[in-house]
Amino acid sequence: MPLFETMTADQVIIALLATVALREAMLLLLPDSIAGPRGWLVRTGSER
What we know:
The chain is built from 2 helices and 2 strands, in the order ααββ. The chain has a two-stranded parallel ribbon with strand order 1-2. It has one domain. The chain has helices spanning 2-6, 9-29; strands at 35-36, 42-43. The longest helix is centred in the middle third of the chain and has 21 residues, at 9-29. The chain is mainly α. Helices cover 54% and strands 8% of the residues.
């Protein structure tokens, strides 16, 4: 499989860190109706 032969562990780690960073940025910047307790894109816990 040429795809897995060209991927390195560094690339996988950077991709995971970028995903976490984008999620955190969305939680900070988007309104609660999109990324919040009742959000349709990112749900952040229970609605109380």
